[in-house]
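Example record

The entry below shows one chain as it appears in the dataset: sequence first, then structure tokens.
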Amino acid sequence: MSNAAPAGDPFEALGDPNRRAIVELLGGGGRSVGEVAEALPISRPAVSRHLRLLKEAGLVVEEPQGTRRIYRLHDQGVAAVEAYLTQVWGEAVGRFRLLAENTTPSPERAPRPARARRSVRP
């Protein structure tokens, strides 16, 4: 395995629903292209293309096992995405919590009664 930075963007790779479905499948353990294709409503060639893009984004690694290649989630790639989301959302959640804890709710205002219209006599 190489420690080089991934060529693709993991968030761009996860933008496709088929690739997200593949990532979810691989979350349960390694699978071959055929096993992934059997679980999804897309062709084997399409699965291969999606796996290649996920691999380029650093989210998936392949391991040869005999004549097959088994794909699994790349721990470092998934951890990098998780760390980014934790950093971004963690700061936002912290700011929201601080705001919520330091904001006094305003009392409910009763609706104003409707004004009666005066009729003007000529």
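Notes for this example: The chain has a mean pLDDT of 84. Residues 1-101 form a domain with the Arc Repressor Mutant, subunit A fold (CATH 1.10.10.10).
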